[in-house]
Amino acid sequence: MPATTTWGCSPPKADWFHLLDDAKELAEINADRPEVMGWVEALKALYQEAKACCLGLGELPANCRARRKEHRRLEQLAVKLATPYAHDPDAPQRVLAQRIIKHLHELFVFVTDPAVPATNNLAERSLRPSVIARKISGGTRSPKGLPVLWQAPPPAWG
Q: Is residue 49 situated within a structural domain?
């Protein structure tokens, strides 16, 4: 398990929201390929299993033996799911399989540490108003953009 960052936060993790969203798009593009559809369903089932696992672990402390054991088990399932396709140039799911392997140790941080959410969706939503303001104003790419950006209301935290 990677150590916490120097500012005391949990390490960054791969985002299940985007992974599953990309898998949904893969399934739509390959709706006529049952093997791809089955792989996408297996990926969704793995995520649901991880979420259910978190509920089952309840109030156990972060990084306890039971949480680490489940983390390792889920990683093994992810490797088993991704490995057959990660190096197959003809597999439509190759890129997602490679992403799973590359970010394997980040995918299930939320199992080991209950304080870490499974997705970064809430963080992205809280940044959205600032990003929109930056895009509308021209951001810091124009002399007029910077003052407008600094006058934008702070994002809503909640």
A: yes
**Which residue type sits at 156?**
A
CA distance 23 to 43: 8
Q: Are 62 and 113 contained in the same domain? A: yes
The Cβ of residue 110 has, within 10 Å, a number of other Cβ atoms equal to 21
Give the whole-angstrom CA distance, residue 138 versus residue 126: 20
What is Dmax (Cα atoms) for the chain? 55
Residues 101 and 139 placed together within one structural domain of the fold: no
pLDDT in tens, 79-110: 999 999 999 999 999 999 999 999 998 899 99
Q: What is the pTM of this model?
A: 0.71
Distance of alpha carbon 4 from alpha carbon 109, whole angstroms: 11
CA 60 to chain centre: 23
